[in-house]
Amino acid sequence: MMIHEITAKVGAHKRRKRIGRGVGSGHGKTSGRGHKGAGSRSGWTGSIRASREGGQMPFFRRIAKRGFSNALFMKHFAVVNLKALEARFDNGAQVGPEELAKAGLIPDAQTPVKILGTGDLKKKLTVAATAFSKAAEKKITDAGGTATVA
To answer: I need a labelling partner for 12 at 20 to 30 A (CA). Which of 25, 80, 120, 132 fits?
Structure first.
Protein backbone atom coordinates (compact mmCIF):
# COMPACT_ATOMS: atom_id res chain seq x y z
CA MET A 1 0.00 0.00 0.00
CA MET A 2 1.33 3.43 -0.95
CA ILE A 3 0.78 6.78 0.81
CA HIS A 4 -1.22 8.21 -2.13
CA GLU A 5 -3.67 5.29 -1.82
CA ILE A 6 -4.26 5.95 1.89
CA THR A 7 -4.87 9.70 1.61
CA ALA A 8 -7.62 9.20 -0.95
CA LYS A 9 -9.72 7.42 1.68
CA VAL A 10 -8.97 9.64 4.69
CA GLY A 11 -12.00 11.72 5.63
CA ALA A 12 -14.39 9.67 3.53
CA HIS A 13 -16.30 8.55 6.64
CA LYS A 14 -16.31 11.45 9.09
CA ARG A 15 -18.39 10.92 12.22
CA ARG A 16 -21.14 13.46 12.75
CA LYS A 17 -20.93 15.98 15.59
CA ARG A 18 -23.21 14.81 18.42
CA ILE A 19 -24.21 18.00 20.20
CA GLY A 20 -25.93 18.37 23.56
CA ARG A 21 -24.40 15.23 25.09
CA GLY A 22 -22.91 16.69 28.28
CA VAL A 23 -20.06 19.01 29.21
CA GLY A 24 -17.41 16.29 28.83
CA SER A 25 -18.21 15.80 25.13
CA GLY A 26 -16.94 19.27 24.22
CA HIS A 27 -20.26 20.04 22.53
CA GLY A 28 -22.52 20.18 25.57
CA LYS A 29 -24.34 22.99 27.38
CA THR A 30 -24.77 25.60 24.62
CA SER A 31 -24.18 22.98 21.88
CA GLY A 32 -21.84 25.17 19.86
CA ARG A 33 -24.31 28.09 19.65
CA GLY A 34 -22.55 30.41 22.10
CA HIS A 35 -24.29 32.57 24.71
CA LYS A 36 -27.40 34.68 24.08
CA GLY A 37 -28.32 36.44 20.85
CA ALA A 38 -30.39 35.37 17.85
CA GLY A 39 -27.88 32.67 16.89
CA SER A 40 -28.45 30.83 20.15
CA ARG A 41 -32.23 30.71 19.84
CA SER A 42 -34.22 28.12 17.92
CA GLY A 43 -35.87 29.34 14.75
CA TRP A 44 -33.87 32.58 14.62
CA THR A 45 -30.80 31.42 12.74
CA GLY A 46 -32.53 32.24 9.43
CA SER A 47 -32.61 35.96 10.27
CA ILE A 48 -28.83 36.24 10.53
CA ARG A 49 -27.85 37.13 6.98
CA ALA A 50 -25.49 39.55 5.27
CA SER A 51 -28.19 42.19 4.76
CA ARG A 52 -29.25 42.23 8.44
CA GLU A 53 -28.26 45.49 10.16
CA GLY A 54 -29.91 45.23 13.57
CA GLY A 55 -32.09 48.27 14.28
CA GLN A 56 -30.41 50.42 11.65
CA MET A 57 -32.37 51.27 8.51
CA PRO A 58 -31.27 48.62 5.96
CA PHE A 59 -29.14 49.78 3.04
CA PHE A 60 -31.68 48.60 0.48
CA ARG A 61 -34.35 50.80 2.09
CA ARG A 62 -31.99 53.80 2.49
CA ILE A 63 -31.09 54.13 -1.19
CA ALA A 64 -33.41 55.71 -3.76
CA LYS A 65 -35.38 53.47 -6.10
CA ARG A 66 -35.05 54.77 -9.63
CA GLY A 67 -35.31 53.43 -13.13
CA PHE A 68 -36.91 50.38 -14.64
CA SER A 69 -36.00 46.71 -14.50
CA ASN A 70 -36.98 44.36 -17.27
CA ALA A 71 -36.48 41.28 -15.05
CA LEU A 72 -40.21 40.54 -14.70
CA PHE A 73 -40.88 40.81 -18.43
CA MET A 74 -37.84 39.08 -19.90
CA LYS A 75 -38.41 36.07 -22.11
CA HIS A 76 -36.01 33.22 -21.34
CA PHE A 77 -34.99 31.00 -24.24
CA ALA A 78 -33.16 27.71 -24.43
CA VAL A 79 -30.49 28.48 -27.02
CA VAL A 80 -29.21 25.99 -29.59
CA ASN A 81 -26.39 26.68 -32.03
CA LEU A 82 -26.27 25.47 -35.63
CA LYS A 83 -23.12 23.42 -34.95
CA ALA A 84 -25.18 21.33 -32.49
CA LEU A 85 -27.87 20.74 -35.13
CA GLU A 86 -25.16 19.76 -37.64
CA ALA A 87 -23.72 17.22 -35.21
CA ARG A 88 -26.96 15.66 -33.93
CA PHE A 89 -29.34 15.49 -36.91
CA ASP A 90 -29.25 13.75 -40.29
CA ASN A 91 -29.77 15.39 -43.67
CA GLY A 92 -33.45 16.15 -44.38
CA ALA A 93 -34.55 15.79 -40.74
CA GLN A 94 -37.46 17.63 -39.14
CA VAL A 95 -36.15 19.55 -36.12
CA GLY A 96 -38.61 20.85 -33.54
CA PRO A 97 -38.72 21.26 -29.75
CA GLU A 98 -39.59 17.57 -29.24
CA GLU A 99 -36.61 16.39 -31.30
CA LEU A 100 -34.27 18.87 -29.58
CA ALA A 101 -35.41 17.65 -26.15
CA LYS A 102 -34.90 14.01 -27.22
CA ALA A 103 -31.40 14.86 -28.44
CA GLY A 104 -30.66 16.49 -25.05
CA LEU A 105 -30.07 19.97 -26.46
CA ILE A 106 -32.86 21.62 -24.43
CA PRO A 107 -34.33 20.69 -21.01
CA ASP A 108 -37.88 19.98 -22.24
CA ALA A 109 -40.16 20.53 -25.23
CA GLN A 110 -42.21 23.28 -23.52
CA THR A 111 -39.23 25.68 -23.22
CA PRO A 112 -39.10 28.45 -25.87
CA VAL A 113 -36.18 27.75 -28.24
CA LYS A 114 -33.96 30.22 -30.06
CA ILE A 115 -31.61 29.01 -32.79
CA LEU A 116 -28.31 30.90 -33.00
CA GLY A 117 -25.89 31.03 -35.93
CA THR A 118 -22.64 29.74 -34.39
CA GLY A 119 -21.11 27.06 -36.60
CA ASP A 120 -21.70 25.94 -40.19
CA LEU A 121 -24.68 24.01 -41.49
CA LYS A 122 -24.29 21.81 -44.57
CA LYS A 123 -27.36 19.63 -44.03
CA LYS A 124 -30.82 20.41 -45.35
CA LEU A 125 -32.97 20.68 -42.21
CA THR A 126 -36.54 21.76 -41.57
CA VAL A 127 -36.22 23.69 -38.30
CA ALA A 128 -39.18 24.89 -36.22
CA ALA A 129 -38.39 27.11 -33.22
CA THR A 130 -39.75 30.07 -31.24
CA ALA A 131 -37.10 32.44 -32.60
CA PHE A 132 -34.08 32.57 -34.92
CA SER A 133 -31.13 34.91 -35.12
CA LYS A 134 -30.71 36.50 -38.57
CA ALA A 135 -27.43 34.63 -39.13
CA ALA A 136 -29.01 31.28 -38.21
CA GLU A 137 -32.01 31.82 -40.48
CA LYS A 138 -29.73 32.78 -43.38
CA LYS A 139 -27.45 29.75 -42.90
CA ILE A 140 -30.41 27.34 -42.72
CA THR A 141 -31.98 28.70 -45.92
CA ASP A 142 -28.58 28.81 -47.69
CA ALA A 143 -28.13 25.09 -46.92
CA GLY A 144 -31.49 24.40 -48.61
CA GLY A 145 -33.54 23.97 -45.43
CA THR A 146 -36.43 25.96 -43.98
CA ALA A 147 -36.67 27.95 -40.75
CA THR A 148 -40.23 28.31 -39.46
CA VAL A 149 -41.25 30.27 -36.38
CA ALA A 150 -43.51 28.03 -34.31
So the answer is: 25
